[in-house]
Amino acid sequence: MKKNIVIILCISLVILSLSGCGNASASADNQVIVYNWGEYIDPDVLSMFEEETGIKVVYDEFETNEIMYPKIESGASVYDVVCPSDYMIQKMIENDLLAEINFDNIPNSINIGEEYWTKSQQFDSENKYSVPYCWGTVGILYNKTMVSEPITSWGVLWDEQYKDNILMQDSVRDTFMVALAYAGYSLNSTDPVQLEEAKELLIKQKPLTQAYVIDQVRDKMIGGEAAIGVIYSGEAIFTQRENPDLEYVIPEEGTNLWIDSWVIPKNAQNKENAEKFIDFMCRADIALKNFEYITYSTPNTAAQELIEDEDIKNSPIAFPDLTEYDNLTTFSYLGEEMDEYYNQLWKEVKSE
Predict the structure, then answer these.
(1) Which of 50, 286, 307, 309 is deepest in the core (most CB within 10 A)?
(2) Confidence (pLDDT) at 28
(3) What is the pLDDT of residue 1?
(4) 3-state DSSP call for residue 263?
(5) What is the CA radius of gyration of the chain?
């Protein structure tokens, strides 16, 4: 999922200095080339890894799974470690783009909670190719001073009293997920009738929407520029720190439970260094440091135990009790033909 957190110029400069200006085509025995979501790691962690291992980190960033995938598929840029989302990992496995991980080289993977390995089997059936890094839900963030009553349903996104005060995700799967869930359908639907109905729902809703955005949901909600926004749970945690009037809810119809995981492309030139990097990310103190920086939920249960802030440790946003829900669904890869169909429907929504 995209997950840009706090964009700070000095931090970007630190990452660029670590990445050698993002030159991901280079290769050497003493380096590891990492491709990750923007602002999805504490820069200090990269420095710590370099200092402790002597391995230089070449670091590059992407904004969406759909931008990342063609670069891996083409092989034009060779990466050692990448952090895709669930359905994209499934696609990469099916298209033979990933190397099996040698878990003998990742002893700290024992820190990942069993429930997250189980969830990961929905896209990596034998847990051979991926190691969970972050996870969360997609829900509704609303400003309690601008909304007349507590929100419980996706249906509020079609409520005309909030015209021009609704922010939607500029993402085909996330946006269609909202309409499919509201209509009572599977979030991984491949039924043309259901998908056409979802498209019509989104077209009907479009005049009420202030904007389709990604990172700006966070900033606009903090600034009181909108009443309601569809947002990732990790960003909801951050926004509530900045604006206590904001409330996050998982709608009663259900939503997407996503997992972003470390994988190693099959053409990686520094596989052992990649496994050392992943093992470092699985260390409890490092996972905690990343969680405190990016505010996206960690599947590292050893790190969860180290959280000192009891409000965060027990937060139903950061760490919801998954046993309380039976309607949280992980996205599946639906095939090239269905990808094209979703994209075509999305174009039709945005062109209206």
Answers:
(1) 286
(2) 63
(3) 56
(4) strand
(5) 20
Q: Which 8-state DSSP code applies to residue 208?
A: G
Three-state secondary structure string covering 19-72:
HCCCCCCCCCCCEEEEEEECCCCCHHHHHHHHHHHCCEEEEEEECCHHHHHHHH
**What is the model's pTM?**
0.88
Q: Is 100 exposed, middle or buried (0-12, 13-18, 19+ CB in 10 A)?
A: exposed
Q: Provide the β-strand partners of residue 250.
A: none
- Give every residue of the chain whose pLDDT is below 50, as ranges: 2-27
Multiple choice CATH, 136-256+325-351, 3.30.70.100, 3.40.1010.10, 3.40.50.300, 3.40.190.10: 3.40.190.10
Helix (H, G, I), strand (E, B) or coil at 342: helix
For residue 146, give both structure tokens. Answer: 């601008």
What is the spatial distance between Cα 232 and Cα 136, in angstroms, rounded to a whole number? 7
CB 328 within 8 A of CB 256: yes
Please give the pLDDT value at position 321: 87
Decide if domain 9-135+259-320 falls under CATH 3.20.20.140: no
Q: Confirm if 261 and 93 have CB atoms less than 8 A apart.
A: no
Sort strands 166-169 and 56-62 into parallel, antiparallel or unpaired: unpaired
- Please list, in sequence order, all residues whose beta carbon lies within 8 angstroms of the beta carbon of residue 154, skipping any fewer than 6 positions away: 140, 178, 181, 182, 251, 253
| Tokens matching residue 342 | 């979703």
Q: Which of 162, 317, 301, 170 is nearest to 241 (CA)?
A: 317
